[in-house]
Fold this sequence. Notes:
- This protein is an alpha/beta fold.
- About 40% of the residues lie in helices and about 20% in strands.
- The protein has 2 domains: about 1-110 and about 280-375, 3-Layer(aba) Sandwich (Isopropylmalate Dehydrogenase), CATH 3.40.718; about 120-275, Isopropylmalate Dehydrogenase.
- The chain has a 10-stranded mixed β-sheet, sandwiched between helices.
- α1 packs across α11 (about 305-315), α9 (about 235-240) packs parallel to α10 and α11 (about 305-315) packs antiparallel against α12.
- The mean pLDDT is about 95.
- Manganese (II) ion binds next to α10.
Amino acid sequence: MSAFTIALLDGDGIGPEIMSEAVKILRLAESRNSGNSSNCLELELQHGAFGASAWFCHGDPFPEATRELCDRAGAILKGPIGLDHERTEQIPVDMRPERGALLPLRQRFDTFANFRPVRLAGGLRHFSPLKPAVIGAGIDIMLIRELVGGLYFGAKETGRRADGRRYVRESLEYDDAQIERIARVAFETARSRKGVLHNIHKSNVLKSSVLWNEVLGEVGREFADVELRHVLVDAAATYLCLDPGQFDVMVMENMFGDILSDQAGGILGSLGLMPSACLGPDKAYYEPSHGSAPDIAGRNVANPYSMIGSVAMLLEQSLGLKAEADHVWRAMRAVFDQGYVTADLARQGSKARTIGTSAFGDLVAEHYATAPGPA
Ligand code: NAD
Ligand code: IPM
Ligand code: MN
């Protein structure tokens, strides 16, 4: 079997620190699965410049060499990109890493289906700011965000009107095919879980949501076994705090998904607990849902869970190694169960020992190394 190439885009801020921990886990997955020649996993891990660091070094946040690497790769693992507000302003608007690298990456590989798991085991409910009674047995939501449409990619125009006023116009655009494909992914996910799909929309105001709901209803007819429930996005934000247990699979357009997924990180207790997978028709890329955390970058304090969780999603979705992925999730859980936390999860009055980024990665690797080997 030839080597499977993974493009590693370290990104900015805490990106390189959490990527190092992800690489430890990938190398371990490789060595655990290199045993027999008929099914031998060989990984070629290649770093590519991406984000603000690429702009400062190469004058391009998504250099041609990185684009070629991503084209060649079987999957892409990406760290967060971006800088703090002041440093961002040093970069021309269209070269800033969000507009100049991340959105083009999503567009290039048409990664329309963004899975953002929102999970907190009942035993870890003390991480959450919500009361234990609200969390109950734990939180387990699959938030599915449409990732290549809507306001992010619609027509944009800025200018000055005849009366001298500056104006901006950005349009929220979807066609039925774009909605249909994400709806299908969402219904299938709901079918494989509890058979309930929450559709998050704003059809009381937005025409885009009217079409969105119409298409969801049409696709829903093929999924008679899945119950479709409609919730307005503003109310959904409240329900996420008051009663997250009512949700299992949620689907929504791009911008709603951006905002609600950060809120979901909040109810878990940290954005550091939010990995994600971004799936397209031919390629997938994996990234934490959060940003580059400039406030804590370079101090070995970031939580690498989101990045290692993204590796677990890669192992399952791109390499078909579901059992290995489960071992990685369990290994991270074991580290918490041993009483270790990273600084973002340290809580006053708790006896948990706070450890750094690399120590967390080492402990996860230790647990993963002792998991039962592949059959
Ligand atoms: P952020 O997500 O970087 O940080 C918000 C808060 O969460 C900060 O307090 C940060 O310290 C904390 N946090 C985030 N990840 C953490 C982790 N793994 N461990 C511990 N704490 C963590 O949001 P921001 O500060 O608004 O944005 C910073 C930059 O990141 C911006 O330039 C933004 O555009 C960019 N961004 C990039 C991505 C991406 O690459 N997908 C996602 C979101 C934001
Ligand atoms: C995310 C981020 C990005 C988004 C930014 C950095 C462009 O916030 O992945 O959630 O808004 O999609
Ligand atoms: Mn976001």
